[in-house]
Amino acid sequence: MNRYGSLCILGMAAGLAAAVAVAAPPTKKKPASADATLVRSAMSAAPRKVAETATIVVANKDGSMRTLRTGSGNFTCMPDNPTTPGPDPMCMDAAGMEWAHAWMTRGIPKTGRVGLIYMLGGGTDASNTDPHAKAPTAGNHWVKTGPHIMIVGADPGFYAAYPRDASPDTSVPYVMWPDTPYQHLMVPVK
Fold first, then answer.
1. CA dihedral defined by 97, 100, 104, 105, rounded to 10 degrees?
2. How confident is the model over 93-111, as pLDDT tens digits?
3. In this model, does residue 21 exceed pLDDT 70?
4. Helix or strand or coil: residue 56?
5. What does DSSP say about strands 55-59 and 76-78: parallel, antiparallel, or unpaired?
6. What does the pLDDT average to over 132-161?
7. Residue 127: what are its φ and ψ, rounded to 5°?
8. Are 181 and 109 in contact (CB under 8 A)?
9. DSSP bridge partners of 145
10. With the C-alpha atoms ordered 94, 61, 38, 68, is the resulting torsion angle positive or negative?
11. What is the pTM assigned to this prediction?
12. What's the maximum distance between 2 C-alpha atoms anywhere in the chain?
């Protein structure tokens, strides 16, 4: 075989290899790890610049927390709770974490230590009058909330300036769980 024939065969082999590579079925992407999915969910709760530096934790079944990522910022984010009906990832500063811990453990949160909680992914529907209600009833004023921030831990007088209705207009700032130790200001955002 002459030099020209060898080059033609090499060229055809390269073309065939390229055609096979193009025609080969795409390889499946590796599924994201469960922890990576939880981190993405938690980060969806806050503005990007806050979420990028936040510590990410997830609640274990026994109520303890597991750190998924240690951050350098002042916020801690938690992913959506899969046992609730709606999206509810949240991202809190230190005072917000203290308040949330008191609420989750039925403790009494400190007042006068104002905290901020982002829930930009929305919030699970909840009773506006019973901080620990698990489902709607005729009298517990279930509300639907979209993306919002929460101001928690303020002195009771702070909340007096905002609507405190049992069945609030959730499109404007209002007090959730008024006259309970867990009252807080809900501020809707788009």
1. 60
2. 999 999 998 998 899 999 8
3. no
4. strand
5. parallel
6. 89
7. -70, 140
8. yes
9. 123
10. positive
11. 0.79
12. 96
